[in-house]
Amino acid sequence: MQDSDANRLFPTPEPLLSIFFCYSALVPVKSLSFPSNIPFNVTHEFFLREILLNHHLKQYPPSESYQQSFWKWAIIQLESFTRSNEDAEVDERIYAHYLSLRTGACSETPPNSFITYHWRFPKTHRYPTEEDSYETITLLESRTTIEAGTTGLRTWRASLVLAQYLVQHPYLVNASNVLELGSGTGFIGILVASLQLQTATPTVDRKMPSVYLTDVNSTVLVRCRNNVRLPCNKSSPHPNMQYKSLDWLDSLSGQENLESFFSEAKVDIVLGADIVFDPALVPPLVKTIFLALLPEPTQVAFIALTVRNEETLRYFLDEIGKVLQTEEVTRNNAGSLLLQIPDQVDAELEVKIFKVTRGRDTQSPTNCEELRSILRSI
Ligand SMILES: C[S@@+](CC[C@H](N)C(=O)[O-])C[C@H]1O[C@@H](n2cnc3c(N)ncnc32)[C@H](O)[C@@H]1O
């Protein structure tokens, strides 16, 4: 199977597919359920061929410690079948693999791991996707919420929710210059680049749009670039991926640099996922979004927020509402492969997406002076 081709796993019973998607995304085994109503040979073949011998997962495997708990669980479940069926036997390769994991997988802190997320292109005439095909996004991620003093080394749920929204509204990004604030691991960047490459018809005079991935943390930016460039990701051949160090706090002190960057970048759409978490960062973040939307009246931002603290959300909405127009968008998660994976960190929390624009009264270019005065007041 070529990396660039859509992957296919069907026909496969849904419960087995679900285990495959969960294994790829390192969902703890306590959240998995083993299907008891599927014949042993079907389940066994699936675990052997589609999970253990899977070409992609051999190249980009889940961490050894995760595999250890997964294969222990799988062996117990498969062996329970064999007790009631004399002809059933667990393949030696499954035992051998499990035993090969036992040494060297006992570290206290969970090690970084490859994680593979699954998603599907929307079914439209521009994306002739088959019912049974799916795409992957693979990232090297931290397995803790904070590592090396940053939250940016893992993908947060708000990114998955925003990604699902973009998958359902690909026209927002596929011909647009995109800028992401607080990009973290690069998940959204990979998705946007994949959507752009799927529909792009670059000609001599029509370049591929730019995707600017920005973050304050240099380690995070390096990880982001490495993830975008992984050969298995559809984003890897995108010719216009840009990685830029951008600190929202610069909007308070080095505003001219940010202004000139935003006006040169000619960004059409600004994205941000899980970037509202610290009340102290709300004013600089709001000002950064404002500056990013300043050059063109048609620019728009989509910000996905995990509601951890109602007060912080209210503060953000009050502050941004003073200078920009915000509107919560309606989401539809039906059929999402991304969101069917049980979440481990923000499981119970709501994610909201806000569309942010300059609003009707500041859309006209003649209102530039008005914008400048708003800017001075932030
Ligand atoms: C919770 S993580 C979200 C990462 C990613 N968007 C996601 O959803 O997976 C917050 C991100 O904001 C970045 N960040 C924090 N403070 C920042 C600042 N002052 N300027 C720019 N980025 C910042 C962090 O480095 C981190 O990548």
From TrEMBL:
<protein>
    <submittedName>
        <fullName>Putative methyltransferase-domain-containing protein</fullName>
    </submittedName>
</protein>
<dbReference type="InterPro" id="IPR029063">
    <property type="entry name" value="SAM-dependent_MTases_sf"/>
</dbReference>
<keyword id="KW-0808">Transferase</keyword>
<dbReference type="GO" id="GO:0032259">
    <property type="term" value="P:methylation"/>
</dbReference>
<dbReference type="Pfam" id="PF10294">
    <property type="entry name" value="Methyltransf_16"/>
</dbReference>
<keyword id="KW-0489">Methyltransferase</keyword>
<dbReference type="GO" id="GO:0008757">
    <property type="term" value="F:S-adenosylmethionine-dependent methyltransferase activity"/>
</dbReference>
<dbReference type="InterPro" id="IPR019410">
    <property type="entry name" value="Methyltransf_16"/>
</dbReference>
